[in-house]
């Protein structure tokens, strides 16, 4: 199904305020509440809306340090990739893992309390990942811009 301009307005509004009431959403996109509700249900059923989540403050939760870890594996065989991917999903401090094209095979986004905590995560988890040949970590000094909203 193709998205029309109203679907895009609904998705844009919900990306910014996922807990917006249907009444507020319908007013924002100029639809009746019942028509708006039907559209949101359809967008959910068709998979455009995957889920609703709360975005938490990493600083308040004590994990203000973000580290990007580039990982190069020993090989590209399916069993090596599968073993790595299965193991990395079990590390709670890893927020994202991306299979890459380029110099690294994977890039991980890791959160930690500080550099000492990252050293613990590295020692207890990252250094034990299967198939790793090389690892390079880069600490984010400051987040300039962050969004979860996709361009519509």
Automatic annotation (TrEMBL):
Q: Which GO terms describe its cellular component?
A: cytosol
Identify the keywords attached in UniProt to this record, alphabetized. Answer: DNA-binding, Transcription, Transcription regulation
Short name of any one Pfam family annotated for the protein: AsnC_trans_reg
Q: State the SMART domains in the record.
A: HTH_ASNC
GO biological process terms, alphabetically, are: regulation of DNA-templated transcription; response to amino acid
Domain of life where this protein originates: Bacteria
Which residues constitute the signal peptide according to the record? none
Instruction: List the GO molecular function terms.
Output: sequence-specific DNA binding
Q: Respond yes or no to whether keyword GTP-binding is given for this record.
A: no
Q: Which residue numbers delimit the HTH asnC-type domain?
A: 3-64
Enumerate the InterPro entries for this protein.
ArsR-like_HTH (IPR011991), AsnC-type_HTH_dom (IPR000485), Dimeric_a/b-barrel (IPR011008), Tscrpt_reg_AsnC-like (IPR019888), Tscrpt_reg_AsnC/Lrp_C (IPR019887), Tscrpt_reg_HTH_AsnC-type_CS (IPR019885), WH-like_DNA-bd_sf (IPR036388), WH_DNA-bd_sf (IPR036390)
**What is the official name of this protein in its record?**
AsnC family transcriptional regulator
Q: Which organism is it from?
A: Seohaeicola zhoushanensis
